[in-house]
Write a structure and sequence with these properties.
By secondary structure, this protein is α/β, with parallel strands linked by helices. The protein has two domains: 9-97 and 282-299, NAD(P)-binding Rossmann-like Domain (Rossmann fold, 3-Layer(aba) Sandwich); 98-274, 3-Layer(aba) Sandwich (Rossmann fold), CATH 3.40.50.720. It is 30% helix and 17% strand. The chain has helices at 17-33, 98-117, 119-123, 151-162, 186-190, 212-217, 235-244, 265-268, 284-299, and strands at 9-14, 38-41, 51-54, 71-74, 92-93, 143-147, 166-170, 180-183, 195-198, 222-226, 247-252, 272-274. The strands form two sheets. A seven-stranded parallel beta sheet has the order 8-7-6-9-10-11-12. The chain has a five-stranded parallel beta sheet with strand order 2-1-3-4-5, covered by helices on one side. Helix 1 packs across helix 9 and helix 2 crosses helix 4. The structure holds NADP nicotinamide-adenine-dinucleotide phosphate. InterPro entries: D-isomer_DH_CS, D-isomer_DH_NAD-bd, NAD(P)-bd_dom_sf.
Length: 314
């Protein structure tokens, strides 16, 4: 795992200040493990910076001041807030981390099972009424659609298929996935979605993907689960579809504005579940290993992993 280095690498950690306490030791441990000699800090003279470990909400927004920059390693899977930054000409790598994926699989599976099994009627309805006779179908008779079959969507689709759900998916490129029916036309996927999970990146093509027309394509009583990004859904169209019951429930982890403002109608809506962008968090220990491995590859002349396609936007 060693790397031929003639001088320590300068790695700038550019994220919210409180993140440094979380990441400093895991990054140092991971760099040691990968045989990298590095100076890791939150403040380095710009002309000396080799790599930036980055969160898009960091104060660093002008990358033109880093003349030696070799790559930006994003701490997040989503890159919509940095991908269009014209000052960034070095490669941008997004976060692909097994723990991030595992966290998303757990969150998505849990929320799909909640709606599939109708758990609310028993958990919330402890009122002495014996509600027998309402038996949920088996998973094999429940169609779950996953929009976006990338690192996270694919893992969720596989996990749901392993539980025997009738899983369908949609992505730009065709995929052969055992137990998952792939659709190339989004309307065909929407038309069968009893439960729909959004794991698309936010790009100009996916913004407002679920608008009034496409929400209308969903079967009556569909459930939406969105751990992707808020603007994938037109909020007003969703509220209208919830009002008629065409959409039975929306479980939303991500929003156009975060934190979701106090007065937003989603908070008080009986058929909306709000979670505070916690579907899956980047974990410092595993993410640090991903970052160190990528820098080691770069220093050894190997191609970087998980490089963002700046034209596609993800
Ligand atoms: P990814 O690996 O880049 O996968 C994106 C998927 O979306 C790919 O299958 C891609 O198709 C598909 N796609 C993109 N644009 C499309 C379009 N216009 N039409 C059809 N399909 C399209 O991303 P990921 O790692 O799975 O992450 C997905 C998103 O999850 C992130 O961008 C982020 O917004 C969100 N996220 C949320 C949380 C949270 O805690 N809530 C945590 C992490 C990530 P191809 O396969 O054909 O390229």
């Amino acid at each position: 795992m060693s790397t031929a280095q003639d001088k320590p690498l300068n790695i700038l950690f550019a994220a919210k200040q409180e993140r440094w306490a979380q990441y400093e030791q895991p990054l140092k441990t991971a760099f040691d493990a990968f045989g990298l000699i590095a100076h890791l800090a939150t403040d380095i003279a710009p002309e000396e910076v080799d790599y930036i470990v980055y969160a898009p909400n960091s104060p660093v927004q002008d990358f033109s001041v880093f003349p030696e920059l070799k790559a930006v390693l994003n701490l997040w899977a989503g890159v919509e807030d940095v991908v269009g930054n014209r000052t960034l000409t070095a490669p941008l790598c997004r976060m692909v981390d097994p723990s991030l994926t595992d966290g998303m699989v757990e969150w998505v599976t849990g929320h799909v099972l909640r709606h599939h099994l109708g758990m609310d009627s028993h958990i919330l309805g402890q009122d002495g009424v014996w509600r027998a006779g309402i038996v949920p179908p088996l998973a094999q008779d429940r169609k779950v659609v996953v929009l976006g079959l990338g690192e996270l969507g694919l893992a969720c689709a596989r996990s749901l298929a392993a539980l025997k759900f009738d899983v369908h998916g949609w992505s730009r490129s065709k995929k052969e996935i055992q137990g998952v029916t792939h659709h190339t036309e989004v309307d065909n996927a929407l038309a069968v979605a009893e439960i729909i999970v959004l794991l698309l990146p936010l790009t100009p093509e996916t913004t407002n993907l679920l608008d009034a027309r496409r929400l209308g394509v969903l079967p009556e009583g569909a459930v939406i689960i969105n751990p992707g990004r808020g603007p994938l859904i037109d909020d007003d169209a969703l509220l209208a579809a919830l009002a008629t019951g065409h959409v039975a429930h929306a479980t939303l982890d991500v929003f156009r504005q975060e934190p979701l403002p106090k007065g937003h109608p989603f908070w008080a809506h009986p058929n909306v579940t709000v979670t505070p962008h916690i579907a899956s968090e980047t974990r410092a220990v595993s993410a640090s290993r991903v970052i160190a491995e990528n820098i080691r590859r770069s220093e050894n002349g190997l191609p970087l992993l998980h490089v963002v396609d700046r034209t596609a936007g993800y």
